[in-house]
Design brief:
Elements: H1 9-18, H2 21-27, E1 29-32, H3 34-40, E2 44-46, E3 52-55, E4 64-71, E5 76-79, E6 83-85, E7 91-93, E8 96-97, E9 101-105, H4 111-118, H5 123-161, H6 210-221
Parallel strand pairs: 1-9
Antiparallel strand pairs: 1-2, 3-4, 3-9, 4-5, 5-8, 6-7
């Protein structure tokens, strides 16, 4: 938390909330147990999924188990076995702040984390770290295989429990004898013979001109 400039809690909370993720990730760190502190010559480390931690404060004080999830945005951690019941009755993981935890066993399966831990240590401690990492990798692979087998077994059980589909019974109906349709003789209509003579034109009637109509109107008025 060396980036803190102001003493005011309001500004400190604002900075913590709006900090970038690469800084938030470093702040999710916990103290190491005494044996780890002497071994790695470090006081604290950022927590990682798979680390074994012990809750030091709160209702779950004294609970020790592995970390199942690390939420960088909220700067909280979820631990196996630490749950709360909702109003509906379902159990969900309770988020815990990393500052209330104590790391009792480190997850060293990541080579980058190992390199950071090994920096500045003697060769004997480095060899011990490598041996411990190899053992953890074996256990991790065995757990993955067990999870895969369990998932396959569940799928098989689901398939077996499914009800078999009822086979559709097909009954053959007797074939109907279709009588041949009798064609009705339609009488041929007589087609009127068209006359070859051209049609006669009607005589065109001439319309009275405007002058004659005006004269007729004048005569009628008189």
């Amino acid at each position: 938390m060396s980036d803190m400039i102001s003493i005011k809690p309001r500004k400190q909370r604002y900075m913590l909330y709006n900090a970038p993720l690469h800084k938030k990730r470093k702040w999710i760190s916990s103290h190491l147990a005494e044996n780890l502190l002497l071994k790695y010559d470090r006081r604290s480390l950022p927590v990682v999924k798979g680390d074994t931690v012990k809750v030091m404060r709160g209702n779950y004080r004294g609970h020790e188990d592995k970390i199942s999830k690390v939420n960088v945005r909220d700067q909280t951690v979820e631990i196996e076995g630490v749950t709360i019941t909702t109003a509906k009755g379902t159990k969900i993981a309770k988020p815990i702040h990393a500052s209330t935890l104590l790391i009792t066993k480190l997850n060293i399966t990541d080579k980058w984390r190992r390199q950071k831990l090994e920096s500045g240590l003697s060769e004997t401690t480095k060899k011990e770290i490598e041996k411990e990492a190899a053992e953890q990798l074996k256990v991790h692979k065995a757990e993955q295989k067990a999870e895969e087998e369990a998932a396959k077994a569940e799928e098989k059980q689901k398939e077996e429990t499914k009800e078999p589909l009822k086979e559709e019974v097909t009954t053959e109906l007797p074939e109907k004898t279709v009588e041949p349709a009798v064609k009705e003789e339609i009488p041929e209509e007589k087609v009127e013979e068209k006359s070859t003579e051209p049609p006669k034109k009607k005589p065109a009637t001439k319309k009275p001109t405007t002058k004659t109509t005006k004269k007729k109107k004048e005569e009628g008025e008189t």
